[in-house]
Records
---
Amino acid sequence: MIWRLVAMVAGACAILAGAILVAHQSPIESLTTLIHGSLGSPTAIAGTLRESTPLLICGLAVFIALRAGLFNIGVEGQLLVGACSCAVVAVRFPGPLGMVLGVLVGMVAGMVWALPAALIKAYRNGHEVITTIMLNNVALFLTSALVSGPIKDKTQSDTATSFVAQTTRLPFVYKTQTVEINCALVLGIVLAVAMAIWLKKTVAGYELQAVGANRVAARFAGISPQKVTVLAMSISGALGGLAGAVQILAYEGRFYDGFSPGYGFDALGVALLAGGSAYAVLPSSLLFGILSKGGTALQIDGVPKGITTVVLGLLIFIAAAIRYRKVTSDA
Amino acid sequence: MLNLLVLTILFSTPLVLAAMGGYTSERGGVINIGLEGMMLMAACVGALASARYGPVGELVGGILAATVMSLLHWLMTQVYHIDHVISGMALNAVAAGGTNFLYLKLGDPAHGSGLPHLPITFFCISAIVVPFAIWIYSRHTRGGLRLLAVGSDPDKARLMGIQPVRVRFFGLLCTGVLTGLAGVELVAYTGVFTDNMTSGRGYIALAALILGGWRPVPALIACVAFGFFSALRLQLQGTPLFGAQLPSQLWAALPYLVTIIALAGLIGRNRTPAGLGKP
């Protein structure tokens, strides 16, 4: 099996090098540009950390579902409804009250958006991937309809809500002229640690992982897979909604059409790469943040940004193949 | 009225072709959410080939590109034993990024919308013929029955001396050809490739397949229904319905909502192939 894995990695590298050569660039130079653009200066690092924050929280959302053996591809949709509802609430109630309410409403919205998928999976045995894909699209169209109609700020031409007041935003931990680090990042890190502990030290966390490891065995041990499925998807949805709310309150300040550049999908890669540990979501999301930020630098250099999405796809393939190898060698 | 009919046919054609591509893969037990990526890749390569080698080159290039993607899915799920959903997602990511990259680097903006392409009728006729051909093939021939057997219970099929890996290879080969046709149709219709031009059609085709209970002719009907709603949406844009101004997005969301309801078991019984996703 190992040679197959080597063949795969070699193939992936060949595809990338070939693509960059086709673009009339040197692969080494492109890599330097990518790293320089994402880690080369304090400003670049702060930008990378900013990109990593939604990926981290969304990655945790996908991760917790994955531990229960569920693919929550719907994080994208949950993020959208979370962000949209948070923006509406935060605009209505300025100040710290709006901040708290916005986060709560965003989480509840994300949870509600994940529930149909959870219930259909638990009680009708419909594949959660299909339902979450459908829910994603419904969320996309719903928020787009809302933001171009009822919740649009009529005083401006963009299809967007009004800006959230500065007092309602999440504060910055560290801020200079060029470098900003928001406490959203700290929140993400705390969540990762909390999740790792929760999974390891509590009964509910243990049950969740037991169902993920083997549904049938878990049922014989007296755990209800249905209940765990609904619980895991609810937590996952709430985290997805939280990611949206945080994105509004920390960075964007308003909800607009085309809000997410696909954080929910990238998060799937983040969680897969992280494997079995919640702590591993931290470096994994940072890697994706680097790719995303560095991709922008590459674009300026004349290599289309799409190449980073290709890297992401190939990384998912490789991570999944390695994961399978581990699973089978354990058995 | 005639306009609505023509639009319905135009909108349904790529959906039908892609859904049939999904059929040959999913009835063999391979979950395929990569339909979107395969179509997109076919559209991009088709557009690039069309500028150099004309309409036939477009068709061949598109089908080849989708087939490569589809066989990559086979390689990953059947040889590397990656989870089918993960492989499909990765495929979509590679297609989304790869087409953006390829078209920006190799595309010739001078051609604009004047790409030579095959007549749309060709695609429409194949969209009508293919579902019935597949229906007859899968019910009355050895190869078709083997495909269904592998999809229903791979272990039993193995005991009967059928190699699921091999049957699925041919199933996914068909998927490549059909999604390739669907992708080329999109380029032939619009005359130009744009980023993410499939815009979820692969997922809608999958939805139609599910709604049709993984059967070719009902899936065809579901596709036409979805096509009809897209056409209606275009026709009704801006006109009030029942005295209220409905946003066009609600029409767009309709196929997805109907599919969720169908999956909840509220329409008909559960017809999911029993071996879907099994090694």
---
Amino acid sequence: MTAAAAQFDAMVPSACVLKQVTKETPDTFTLAVARENGSGENAFAPGQFSMLWVFGVGELPISISGDPSKHDELVYTVRSVGKATHALVSQKPGTEIGVRGPFGHGWPFQAARGHDVIIVAGGIGLAPLRPMIYEVFQNRAEYGRLVILYGARSPRELLYRKELAAWARQPETQVLVTVDYGGIGWHGHVGVVTTLFKYARLHPARSVAMICGPEIMMRFVTRQLQEHGLQEQNIYLSMERNMKCAAGFCGHCQYGKHFICKDGPVFPYAEIAQLLDKYEL
Amino acid sequence: MATRAQTPRAPRKKREPSPTRNSPRAAAEATSKGNGSQPKPNSGKRNAKTASAIEFDRANHRPALITPEQLEKLIATLINDGFEVIGPTVRDEAITYDPVKCVADLPAGWTDEQEPARYRLKKSDNPALFGYSLGAQSWKTFLHPAEARLFAAEKQNGAFHILNNDPIPAVSRALLGVRACELAAIRAQDRVLLGDKYRDPIYGSRRESALIIAVQCSHAAATCFCVSIGSGPKVSDGFDLLLTELVDANGHRFVVEPGTDRGIGLLARVDAKPALEADLAAVESALASAAQQQRKLDTAGLKEFLYENFENPQWDKISARCLSCANCTMSCPTCFCTTVDDATDVTGTHAERCRRWDSCFTQSFSYIHGGSIRTSAKARYRQWMTHKLAAWTDQFGSLGCVGCGRCITWCPAAIDITEEVRAMREGGVRADA
């Protein structure tokens, strides 16, 4: 293969067999995709994403939500919100989907070793954080306490419910879940995710926080974290913009001076603090 | 960051030549019909050595002199070498870059008048072939094509395989008449599409096989401001040959400087003679005349100024006039943004994925699930101008504007980027909300 052809592969998907589709919520599904050689170039870091292509329909940037130590599969959690995402979650196991990537910079897990880890997620924002949670549990001795704060709109929109319960039973781990609207049968917290901070047992001086969710939620969470005394340099966020190429060519994912595809999607808070409260940026 | 929906189709713009007319395949067929057997253009590498003996005196850096007849011979030589020569022609009452076969195809005696929202071609008494400034179209049409197929794929029983994954154009092109600002634009796109972790093979293959014949300006349009940006009118590097057209009492001639060994080889093949001191003085005076420009853009501290003025009332004033038509981005020689289209045939077993120019002025450009980020014209104009004049510097180490003035000429609402920056600066810095 010539150098030019090797380069071109970044824009051309590989055909990967869809192994399993699991329904998480009424509109959200987790897809497991087989991969041939996960130990080499397409091993991924927690927080990275892939471009998933449905034959003839469209392509989407989707965060990897699976276990980074499993080298035989890539796992994605997809919410069906439009034509391409609907087509993606409707694929039958055994069919092939196109996969490009992984792309981008993920969570700073190496820098977080030796620290407490605070995970704050809103809605589907838990998906790109799940590989980081797996990373902590697999290297448990490397990390301090793990605190997971998770908010969703309603109980039926909570992702990974069984895993959340299992994580909560682990030592040195606190899992707090809240919903915007509880309804009958919900006995947990009600309110936006920032209301969970008063229940969280945090040691701000030795913590690294990783946040993913709607921008408005991330703005208020970063504020809360700083009020609790977390250092600005220990806060990381995963950002989202429209994306076509994931390689820095299409221009769509620009966020101020950043390209989310190649500079992100995970950014240190200090790098984007000035941008977070800018409307229509 | 988990799900993002596909954007709908962006409006299609008409500034680029039709795909059939300029597709590499069509061009290859046209060329092969014209010349039965032809040698391949040499290797495609920009600095490839030419075999021919170097008779031209490069050691002394003495520029050469050629006549319009020798330019004719130069074009014929390039065509004979297998190049498709793209140069300025008159089409639809404007200068457009199209395949040229001879000097007669070039716009002899045509000049242009440009003002905000106004472009007119005018016949002049001067027989100059390059007496115009710039048309709407830029060289990105040929290097970063408006439409390109990324790949095709075929599906059988739920499995698919990729077909025709070949980004290499069928023919190498010689670009004739590249101005200083346009060379700066090509350098800017080089940085975006070739200079980072990933390399765009569609742009890269076209760029590497292109032979560049630059032409220095001898006058500026009213919309030009390359002097402010520092991108012109003098061409310093990035060319194979550099022409300066002179028409005076000493006749119609071109001072030619080679920039590469390939350029030296070409000059030798058209029997170029050394230029005289008087010719070189005439080049300097032509450049001095081109440097007389009406428009200025004060770039000092511009990046910080624009970052600080995210909320400035001038944005509202601009957006009251901006039609979000995307003309500025289509005609801009550095704008590189693209979108993709997926399509299948009627059986659903054959799929193609195509890339097309896109514009940050469309609503769909910033669409993510739940709606567009930049819904207002104000936000979209601000994104475009702030990217050109501020963020580009952080991203790629230079301004994203080369001062060609196309966005001024081709804006139907006559919005002038230099004027808007001036108005905003005079309005003063307003504290960010």
---
Amino acid sequence: MDSHSVPLVFYAIALIAIIIFVFNMKKFLVIRKGKEAPLDVKWWELLTNALTFGVAQKKVYRKRFSYASIMHTFIAWGFLELLFATTVDFFQARGWLTAYLPELDTPWFAFVNDFGGVALGIGLIMALIRRHGDKPEALPQDAWSGRGILLGDTGILVLLLLLVCGGFFAESARLAMENPESAMWSWAGFALAKILPESLWIAAEPYLWWFHAITALIFIAWLPNTKIFHAIAVIANVAVTNRAKRNQIPAMHVSQLMEDPDLDPDTISLGVSSSSELTWKQLLNSISCTECARCTMVCPAYATDKPLSPMKIIGDIRNDIVNGTKNGGLVGGTITETELWSCTTCGACMEECPVLINHVPMITDFRRFLVLSEGKPPTQASQHLENIMNTGNPWGMSNRTKWATDADIELPLMATKKEADVLYWVGCAGAFDSRNQQVARSMVKIFEAASVDYAVLGDEEMCTGDSARRLGEEYLFETMALQNIETLNKYKFKKIVTACPHCLHTLKNEYGDFDGNYEVVHHTQFIQDLIANNKINMNPNESKQLTYHDPCYLGRYNGEYDAPREVLQSLLGSSENMIEMKNHKSESFCCGAGGGNMWHEVEDGSRINLKRFDEAVETGAQGVVTSCSFCTIMMDDAMKVRGKEEDFSVQDLAELVADNLS
Amino acid sequence: MNIGVLIKQVPSSESPVPLHDSETWIQEDGVNWEMNDSDSYALEEALLIKEKQGGGDVVVITLGPEARSLKTIREALAKGADRAIHLVDDVPGLSDPYLIASAIAHACKEESLDLVLSGLQSGDLASGQVGILVGEILGMTTSSLVMETDFSDNSIRVKRELEGGWYQWVTLPLPAAINVQSGLNHPRYASLKGIMSAKRKEIKTIPVADALNNTEALQSMSTLSVPIAEKRTEMIEGDTDQIVSKLIDVMKTKAKVL
């Protein structure tokens, strides 16, 4: 169509559509209802995030979601191409920059544009098949209405499909009418045009053009109310996301809060119970959610039939802030307490989220409300929290060095040495849990074999507060953190070695908020270092095949996947003896004990540790090696439940190393 | 409608309890003190009754030295008790239940309590008498080993545990003193909001000597000793039938697991 032939009335309608679009974009403004939060990304990060994770959809492409990845690629890139083509067409119609822009019938442009349309069409059909053919259970089940989204999942696909088909019909009619020389380069439209007689196309042309124009304008006008809104919101969301701090839980600084003389306990709000108490960033998270359900599909609680779907939580927040709070409120109402307590904080949801939503910190905020404001931790967990408060460890036991004295080990104590190269953080499990005491003894054996100058805190060591913090008990966490920091600051050491990734994470990444800054390494990293520097030697055991279970707080939370594997491989003599589970490294499946779930059990569904243990057995290996106190307990327990003690082993990497020292 | 709850601080079950040189009490330094477990059930029951009744005060009453008592009082206030009475006893080791009950009863007199709840027994001396004695001194109706309560305006119906899995329902006119069995509810967790509010709640202190007013003790601690741990193995001999019947007998009479 030539520039002069676009009727003015079209521009008038288009203007109305754009006004409606802008009006509907007010949805964005709901984030202003959120609390303040610092914008802690540099401008260039903002830009690169927007381009890579936004426009280029970097995290959409995942092997484990191959169908959805291909589908989205077709839709998104087809859509972007057509958006570009339409913009160029608009410029041509207005006669702007025509010298620099191709025309619709420029051969390469015609070819590419049809390609865009076909790609979008294929993608949309793939999406419809996914919604109505082989539909993953985790996806929203209400296809047409959606959860507070106009047209739902299916409606918007049908509208887009009408847009694509209408576009091709309009193109075919135009080709039939104008019959340009390069018509065949518009390969799809050209082929379609051959199906019907030319006269029919010419007669239908104005109707087809208007049909396409009107569907396009309806789409633009309503876009912010449909699922496609994510295409805009996500750019903003990923841009402002500080990727290095995604899994960090912000400190509440409760002790400072309690010193405030004006503080009124009756009116103060602790934790988050309503959507408006979330930060603007968290609300932006919620309106960016596309409901792709990847978070839910990888959630260990969901996979074991517990009442948690991370996607539902995000959707509930969005509905609450956009459409208003339902009776019963958000936390404890729309989002039940059991949903919140089912979360193991394993971080699989955040790892998979293509639009960088941070589910776990929000769940923790809700838990903080339940515990700090309501005093309602899970019933079973409350005893362990009180134990931490009263005795400094969740087991409620005393004498932190008995594990050593019982085995005639003379532990060097920081209280007497004052200074050491390595401060070995035994952890409560290492001190009190009989299974993990073996790990602690193995560590001593390794330290001694490598002549490491080490010392422990003994009875001065307190729980790091990991479980307390994950359970929302920030006050208890902070009490433990401040006490431990005071103790640690009394002594001189180069680094802290911990056997438990939960201790590692809190000491390394969370104590900094309270001015406790230390070099902290995990025992697998420390052992790898000893091997690399020939400080210890091992006799490889080539007769055994083992698999390795990645603890969430070592892998996903601290990015360490290689050190334990390298140590294990050198123990097994060859990489062939190390068999990977289907879910490994960043796709590892939680043992079920994280997030404070070590201390209580959600009754619904089956047990997470059994599912993970079965995955380990399925590899055909003769044992599973892990490197986390909680994982060891959970796997050991599962082994007993499955009756596999005779032909399967559960070991911490340190035990294996200590047993094979030469 | 005011409810008094008697709470005591006892060494935690994992805490070391070295003997004092006098051999009539323990050395308190380094002992980890906590709220007596069964008292936490009494406190929870009081809070539940108050919530159901929708009014009145829950007043916790404790007797003991300043530091460790305050920790327990604050915990109870944080969990939802409205006020506290602290009978300050600066000479620790007051062990005669009658003396303790007399001091507590004295403190309760002005409070016009409709109900006094206490835990079954303390984790340290386990006499199980104080709560009932307080009721008797104050002229209240009393009941022990309560597994369930049903409160109405002028009376309280309680389910008492009897031996051998039997129980009975008893209705007590108010005021009443009740001593509750552990496990009849789930003691709540102290919220941070509660901890913050606890700081503003009233704690009335009364020196024990004033409350006792020269009351004489009825019993005194003569010696305290650490139990000697020993293992004894008894071999049961005979043919299978004899072994089985002897074993059942042991399980019934000695181990009391059947």
---
Amino acid sequence: MIRIGGEAWQVMRAHAEAIFPNECCGAMLGRNDGETKHVTVALPLENVHAGPRVTRYELRPEDLLRAEKEARGRGMDLIGIFHSHPNHDAYFSETDLKNSCPWYSFVVLSVKDGQFDHAKSFLPNMEQTEAPEEALDLPG
Amino acid sequence: MPKVMIPTPLRQYTDKKDSVEVAGATVGEILGALTATYPDLKKNLYNDEGKLRSFVNVYVNDEDIRYLGKDKAQVAATDTVTIVPSIAGGR
């Protein structure tokens, strides 16, 4: 299960709404106690996809490197990645799957007409062929 | 010896170490030695054809090895090798 703390969630949601109608993306930092991943810090990152960002996102590897360093500096781990689906539901698309990494949780936020609607978390496999849903615990 | 930084989710395969010192003069030698010491790491980094998986990026200090000669990228004893995933997506 992945549990997102209040402060981190506020950052993720606000970022997804601010970047609408484009897709947002970012990193989630925290700790994994073996049973539950506790996200306490969310880092909005730039969507560097070269084409239309309404339907695609891409993280700059250097930004992920920076997020990993920041996590280490704070005594935390890089636990997952978040991105938004503007005006679409929170599912793990074929594009998401083919460009995923099995090492992390992937939280997808659905933003409709500029307002957060719902979110889900997914765990892609090594071969990038499936991504089962992971239990997601949000504040409030 | 060069130091390899291990991303959090892969530390379960490196006896929980967040960095490992590995002998070698190129990225290929270093990753080869690393996966020989920690065989469970291999399937996370390489596909069945022995190529780095599409989501794996490797950096020497702050330089992507794709611009340094890939597996043949030179690594000095004081360098740091970092494994960073490549991530994108969209609906």
